[in-house]
Amino acid sequence: MGSSGSIIDLFAWGGDGWTRPLLTGLGVTMACACIGYVLGVVLGLAVAFAKLGHNRWLGAAATLYTTLLRGVPPLLVIFLLFFGTNGALMWVARGFGYTGYIEVDAFTVGVMAVAFVSAAYSSEVFRGAHAAIPVGQFEAYTALGLRPFAGLWTVIIPQMFRLALPGLGNVWIMAIKETTLLSVISLAELMRVVGVAGRTTGQPFVFYGVAALVYLVLVAISSRAFHALETRMRWA
Amino acid sequence: MDLETALHVATELAGAIWVTLALAAVTLPLGLILAGLATWARRSRYRALRGVASAYVLAFRSIPLLVQIFVLYYGLSQFAWLRASPVWIVLKDPFACAVIAMSVCAGAYTAEVMRGGLAAVPQGAIEAARALGLSGFKTFLLVTMPIAIRRALPAYSNEIVVTLKSTSLACTITVMELTGVAKDLMSQTFAVIEVFCMVALIYLIINMVLIFLLQQVERWLTPAYQRKPMFAGLRRAAAKRLSSEAVSQKG
Known about the structure:
The complex is a heterodimer.
Chain A: H1 7-10, H2 19-52, H3 56-71, H4 74-95, H5 106-132, H6 135-143, H7 148-181, H8 190-201, H9 204-234
Helix pairs in contact in A: 2-3, 2-5, 2-7, 2-8, 3-5, 4-5, 5-7, 6-7, 7-9, 8-9
Chain B: H1 3-42, H2 47-62, H3 65-73, H4 80-84, H5 88-91, H6 94-119, H7 123-131, H8 136-166, H9 178-189, H10 192-221, H11 232-250
Helix pairs in contact in B: 1-2, 1-6, 1-9, 1-10, 2-6, 3-6, 6-8, 7-8, 8-10, 9-10
């Protein structure tokens, strides 16, 4: 492929065209963002309840976790996980008597990074949602004779999700944006593919421009979808 | 980590703090100016101007900052005429590129903060000022702006933290600030956790200092009759303890 190929040649399907690699990259981006986000929201809910609960040590640990992960650049968290995970896992494995070499691939590191950062932000969202639920709801499930766990699960948490929806939408958009940073640990997501394409074709502006448009569309669709979900949930 | 490595890490990081602070110190005012322009344009009476400003805010808040930095630093090098022009002196410098990209992005986010602040100004206050015969400009300067700034400050301090964190992206285009140096140190010394903790502590301290300063500005802008005393919580606790001691002494 010549560096002066026309736009049609650049984005041809198959052959030397870049559309297929770009779509693969987009797939990796979305997979990483989705898995990381879902894990992050679940972990965030746990962290939120650790903060709300009565155990002081658990609460302090949860507060430390959110302060740290929200105050530190996500890129630093990615580097920590990238350089630190192998060592940490091998250290744990050595405790079990395994002395071989363990290596975690960039995708796993990426998912973990997205999950840990989303967990910190979504735990704050959940805490806000918990505070917004009227006391009457708590009294009501107690009056109905539900144990605290059952009451939380059937009465409080469903309402929390509805109240947390706008905040969770922001966390999702943040997760999409965070995946771009994973190109620095050479995960072959969209940014990485775009960078390679720009270098090999000598047209970095075109390819980074395409990436910008793709992210713009992704964010636009996401915020539309979350708005639609909010309006539906309002009457649920 | 032995003492020698610890010293090596500490000196490397101490040098990098200044790069991070310099990036933030240049980006924040530039972002504020851009945000001011965007806010002014979004309230303009010309529809085209409003459209352009809204598109700017929407686009630069939606596109990830890393993409913006790469478009500016790697993308623009595609054009030979640009490389030949005098603008290239600025655009070939990674520090300048990082600052430009981050300022434009921060400007878009800050414009939203400003809009929130302006929306929080009670309509009655503006009407009252107009009824007193203040001109439109004076109303803005003496009534709308002070209230809006005070209302927007908490959100703006959030924005400052975001900007500080986003300076870390400069290391992807070879500006060696804290995160970039941390990455090198992690791969050289293998003291991953130690380096992470030190850098995290530095970021948290900078954050805390900035938030504290912003709180002081907010306090200073609040009229005296609405001001809460400094360290209100501590004083209340102290007063409580004193009064309880007094009670126990009485008893």
